[in-house]
Amino acid sequence: MALLPEKPTSQTVEAIYSFWAGKQSQPRAYLGGSVIGRECERQLWYGFRWATGGERFEGRMQRLFDRGQREEAVFVSELRAIGCEVYDIDPATGAQFNFKAVGGHAGGSMDAAILGVPEAPKTYHVAEFKTHNAKSFVTLQKDGVQKAKPEHYAQMQIYMHWSQLTRALYLAVNKDTDDLYSERVRYDATFAKSLEAKAERVIYGKEPPHGISADPSFYKCKFCPASPVCHTNRLPAVSCRTCAHATPEPDGDGRWSCAKWKADIPLDAQRTGCPEHRYIPALLKRWGEATDASEGGNWVEYTSADGVVFRNGPRGPGSFGSEELAAMTPAILRDSLANEIRDEFDGRFVPVEEAA
């Protein structure tokens, strides 16, 4: 039997997906209220430190994420149509109401504040709008937002805490059927304060906290974007956020300082880092233990479990800058021929794609 030809790919669809694939966003400068409810503080720490370099999504997924943004305007229009007062724009900025906390290193944007909710028309509510697929929506209807979507529940709690409102309205839509779900949520001061305390631990922690599991096959770890840097020898992306010289300061508007250059670090500079970048030693723990260091020489020396000694420092025999280390594996440290060639020709190890 002859094989049937594969269904041709639509050039129009591919062009649309390509458009969305090109709209990748950079990692946030702050720890967002939308993620503070995540269970694993280690994942949050890696995210805040840009250790994964930021997640990249295919065009279809980028478009799906934007669907949630587009739905917000629909909800606002519908709420106004039934007589609610909806405050979705801060007149001072022309954008959503934005909160900052923990020295400006934590924050988020509230979808809206609402007055006139039919169940409690005299009470202001934090509004949180979400889209769900059919399976998720059924679970939400059955269990309620706190159990079905704990991250969404935490997001509302921290926004109530920061806005000093005591009620929230969770309004969700089933994307498959357009069924709606709403739930009023009461402010839980104890829980909200615990979330802010978690944010402080994550933001000011000098090294990764314990994760929810040391087993990379654990189901919550398998699909975590931080899994490669958490469970393997892969080193985090190079930026000021992964550098031992950089510190998030508590007294400014998200201010970071650099001990090497004795100056504040602008956001754009944080994303690229500089040649003096030296990894936070805990990030090299799978490669070796820090056994020596020189502030003046700007190097940290490591010794592996099998006795291999190397430095994260200025380029030289047995000494590698952070960008070079990020392109390597521990096995390369043990490849004497590769290192002899590197030293002989004043070379450096680079990522495979760069070498190609």
In short:
By secondary structure, the protein is an alpha+beta fold. Helix content is about 35%, strand content about 20%.
What does this protein look like?
It is built from 14 helices and 15 strands. The chain has 356 residues and is an alpha+beta fold. It has 2 domains: 27-204, Lambda Exonuclease, Chain A, CATH 3.90.320; 238-355, no CATH class. The strands form 4 sheets. It has a 5-stranded mixed sheet with strand order 2-5-6-7-8. β10 and β11 form a beta hairpin. The mean pLDDT is 93.
The structural class is alpha+beta
Mean pLDDT equals 93
Whole-angstrom Rg: 24 Å
- Helical run tally: 14
Number of β-strand runs: 15
CATH class of the largest domain: Alpha Beta
Could you say what the CATH architecture of the largest domain is? Alpha-Beta Complex
Q: How many discrete domains? A: 2
Contiguous low-pLDDT stretches (5 residues minimum) are none
Strand-residue fraction?
Answer: 15-25%
* Global shape: globular
Order of helices and strands: HEHHEEEEEHHHEEHHHEEEHEEEEHHHH
Helix coverage percent: 25-40%
Distance between the termini: 42 Å
With strands numbered from the N-terminus, the spatial order across the biggest sheet is 2-5-6-7-8
Task: Please outline the helices and strands.
Elements: H1 11-21, E1 31-32, H2 41-48, H3 59-81, E2 85-87, E3 97-101, E4 106-110, E5 112-115, E6 125-132, H4 134-143, H5 145-148, H6 150-163, E7 167-174, E8 180-186, H7 189-204, H8 219-222, H9 227-231, E9 246-248, E10 256-258, E11 263-264, H10 267-272, E12 289-294, E13 299-303, E14 309-312, E15 319-320, H11 322-326, H12 330-333, H13 336-344, H14 352-355
Parallel strand pairs: 1-4, 6-7, 14-15
Antiparallel strand pairs: 2-5, 3-4, 5-6, 7-8, 9-10, 10-11, 12-13, 13-14
Helix pairs in contact: 1-3, 2-7, 6-7
